[in-house]
Amino acid sequence: MPAAMNVYEIGLLKALYRAVGCGPLDRLFAVVTRLGNGGAVWIALTVLLLLFPKTRRIALAMALAMALCLLFGNFVLKPLIARPRPYQVDPAISLRIPPPIEFSFPSGHSMNGFAAALSLRLRCRAAGRTALCLAALIAFSRLYFLVHYPTDVLCGAALGCAAALAADRIVAALAARKERVRHG
Q: How is residue 71 annotated by DSSP?
């Protein structure tokens, strides 16, 4: 990413924190951002949904979507683009959470959150709405703490949504194939 873009986005992040940052929100968003660490909340939800036959298809789509994000986002895009994080570019930024060690682009918290939440939303509207709200809060927390640029979060969310749509189609096709084989 061009250096001018980094400077512009860092300015937006600092303005965001100046506008809304405060001790109570620091504490709230510290909890929210930890929910997304390593996809923890989404993996836990996926495992829970795998336990029930009625929700296994949703869980399989969620797992596949997050696996696609891991492979494409973390193993391909992050090292390929190798974008430093805002606090690495601007030493004036002091972090209020432990510094992430991976590259910045795309946001893994956003990718996993939107991959899992949209997968859920596609098959279970009410629970999916709640999950999408949580995914958005987790994504926002990454901006709030200045550990990602806005474009990292937006692209992470878009990649997560694309992974969810692809996973849903793959799981549906596999289910249809299984039915055809079963019936004949």
A: I
The per-residue pLDDT for range 109-131, each reduced to its tens digit, is 999 999 999 999 999 999 999 99
Contact present, 100 and 85 (Cβ < 8 Å): yes
CB-based contact 66:40 (threshold 8 Å): no
| Angle, CA 147 vertex, CA 144 and CA 148 arms, to 5° | 90
Q: Confidence band (pLDDT; 50, 70, 90) for 7?
A: confident
pLDDT at residue 179 in the model: 82
Place of tokens 């990454």: 142
Confirm if 131 and 121 have CB atoms less than 8 A apart. yes
- With a threshold of 0.90, does the pTM exceed it? yes
For residue 160, count CB atoms less than 10 angstroms from its CB and return exposed for 0-12, middle for 13-18, buried for 19 or more.
Answer: buried
Domain ranges (residues) in the chain: 20-86+102-182
User: Do residues 39 and 163 touch, judged by C-beta distance below 8 A?
Assistant: no
> What's the angle, vertex CA 37, arms to CA 18 and CA 71, rounded to 5?
115
